[in-house]
Amino acid sequence: MTGKSTRPARYQSVCRWSFHPGRGGFVPSDVRPGFAGMTPEGFVDLVREKIAPRVPSNTVLGLAVHYEREACEKTAAGLVEALKGSGLFLSMISPGAHYHFAYGGIGSPDPAERKAAGEFAMRALDLLTGPLSSASLPDCPAVFDVWNGSLGYEIPTLLLTDMLRWADEAIAGLVTRACTSIPRIRVGVEPKPSEGHPAMLYQTSSDVLALRGRLRSAGVDVSGFGLINEFGHTEMSGLDLVQDYAAALLEGAVVHIHANSQGGDGIRLGGAGKFDIDFGTAPSATTLAIAGMLSESGYAGWVEHDMQPRPYDSEQQSIDRVVRSVCNWEALMRVVESGLTDRSKLLERASARRTMELEDLVRDAVARAHELSKELYVC
To answer: Domain-by-domain residue ranges, the chain?
Structure first.
């Protein structure tokens, strides 16, 4: 890491799925051969050796994995042992249901799949609360992410109400198990509008907040349950990412964050209506506003860099992109903490309708974050 620091600890995590040899299909499957067959221990070594020395010194690095492809009962002990003394911690586990269940998962009309998907999710949660529990950081515990990649449909019928009810019931069971476990685990649902189905059961952040309300009304303790928002998923929908965070933070419902980008930022193409591009996060008016709201709210959870290498990236450039994304987030937080866009400065201009000055203030702050990120980035 880049020298000692007295700045607040920043909990940022790296995803196992960011390091693969290639996707195949329309793009190469072997452009990064060194990532093929990576074990959990190999992932820890990669982050410890190639990423940790290059990020700002106040960064606490976490690792996110899918059950069971990237961490399972057979590999848990090796992962825990590799993490000991590494300065790295488990930040998240998600049941990789999309690898197994293609007809709706825990919301499937097929009762056999619905049962199997529910049992699969419970095994993933039990792994987190059991064999992997010592890999979690007490000050910033790992979370359980219900990503709805398999929770979708393609034929619009009144059965959607049944599918939502079945999924709600399965999630209620996970939340109840998690809130009574030792250690107590936070659970979140990560919405996405489409992919791998044309339509998903929980498409937007508002859907997750509505689910939280339904569970609360049913008597479920939702104090440790809420939203796992991925920037790019909201952008895929063409919705307002800043409003997502404003609403969820007012409810105290943000349990984990996936910081990335769909592009469409004037430099990289992408945006609403595109597939899930998963660029790293970058300074912008939107990400600056989110950083400010998180700082004000006292959010102390993980900010995870859920991103993919480009189809043409080498192994080294894949690593470089993750490091840059971590530095970008740290730069945004430092600009917020500098007071450059504090509430009084924003409100002074907004209340007097001096909106051009307001634009300049934000633009200058974003520019400063870009410059600061370049200073933090260690080649």
So the answer is: 10-376
